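The passage that follows is intended for readers who have already worked through the single-chain material. We present the inputs for a multi-component assembly, then the predicted structure in tokenized form, and finally a short commentary. You are encouraged to pause after the input and sketch how you expect the pieces to fit together before reading on.
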Amino acid sequence: MKNLNIRLLVRTVLACALVLWAGTALAAPILIAHKDVSVDAVSAGDLNKILLGKSANWPDGSRVVISMLKGGPIADEFLKTYAKKSPKQFGTFWKKAVFSGTGDMPAAFDTEADLIVFVSRTPGAMGFIDEATAHEDVKAISIN
Amino acid sequence: MYLRSNRKLTALLVLFTIMVANLAMAGAPVVHGIISQGYLKSTEYNYLIPSKEGSFAFNEAMINVSATVSDNLRVGAQMIARNLGSDGNEDFVLDWAYGDYRFRDEFGLRVGKVKTPHGLYNQTRDVDMVRNSILLPQAVYTELMRDVMNGFEGISAYGTISIGESSSLEYDAFIGTVDVERTQFPVDLLLQPTFASMWGTALPMAGWRAEVEKIYGGALRYNTPLDGFRVGASAFDAKMYATGSFVAPLGFFNPEFKMHASPWYVLSAEYSTDRLVASFEYTRAFVDMELNGVLVPTGMPDPAPPAVVMDFAPEDRRGGYYGQATWQFNDWFQLGSYYSMYYPDYDTRDAEGFSHMMRDLALTVRFDITDYWLIKLEGHAMNGTGDVRTHMNPGSALAEENWTLFGAKSTFYF
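Having made your guess, compare it with the prediction:
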């Protein structure tokens, strides 16, 4: 009886770990932007500078407006890869800017649908979504 | 002669109010705010506030509005009310208000009242929610100088220069003035201890006015090719003039005070990953002061004793450092600790005893209850009395070397 419980516990833990790993591993974010943005590709370095407010413009010189998902595996993966921060740290970074007067908080959304609507309606806007999500109203930008 | 009216700042505030109001009608501005309430309790000494008995005289409230006027121009303003013992008294004052024109990423200008770039955290020293600890390490971010180094009215040039694909250099150079209604620095650090030694007690303040006639300085931050690792240096030079009036036994004491900090600098290093933030900072200050005063006897029998002229020319050569690390376990729990070492006179740091230094080992737990509400608990194991104010502890010989300080703080923000 005791061995059975231990086996059940181990299987449960492994199953949970597999689900968590799968959720992370399947996260494949892409960068999207307003359709009028003329840029088709950005470097990872330029994207980092944009996300951290060091650069306020797209490589073509037009103003960039940052938007983001509040959380989830897509936000985790995108921000960890390109901003080198967790969503929590990313939020804190921009709160520092807001209360010291050096920047404005990126628009944050609970769902990809809301984020896509914002990006499609805001000139210069950028955001990130799962590559599997339909995004006809915005353009995808590749990251070199 | 040195003191000027507050008209410049008032005009600036009016200008921004008009601008923000105009923008508000267009629906453009964004509003954010914070309300924060803290509590401090210590075992031996009153530290920063009347903490020996336990005190809630420790809070901040701020609200800001900002708007993007064009691709290059942003405007905004923030009001703050704060209380830390005798400092602040919860009156709303202008914290920052400026126009920010970014010509390009490498060069921008901010004009108005601007937060002073000094060390890693001076610009956000009042923003409790963006850090783990309740109290910033006092070795570097002393509350005594807050009103001098918090912000200035003037102009700042800033920018980010890319160095290759993965590193960059940020700079910030500024010049301006600071119009301070009160500053704890001369009052608490120099005047009240002097009064305490002369009259055996701190003196009630009948009036006080101080102005930093000129402050200038800069900050450099190098974002290294190693992800999350940055180093920096910042410094300022400030000249302050102040006059005041204190009610002394048998008369009034009307001192004139001059201070020249040249320089006051901080060297910084910070490393962060998606879970860890670790930082180290080292500071030195070279401050020369002059205190000239006349004690004018009043209400004395005729003939009154003659006025007493007093002159002091003390130096402040403080210095210190700290190291801290914070670990974000998950979205709602964060643990952090710092070790801070402060010397009122850095040149005598090897002296015997414990009144010439203060060591602070702090441990903080932070709970983010919701996206808009957090609670922190913090313990400090203190060794030494170098940063304990004698006039805040009347009757105490400051004889206890080891003592503890407990803090709690809750913050709401939007």
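Commentary: The two ends of chain B are 44 Å apart (CA to CA). Residues 7-25 of chain B form the longest helix (19 residues). How closely did your sketch match?
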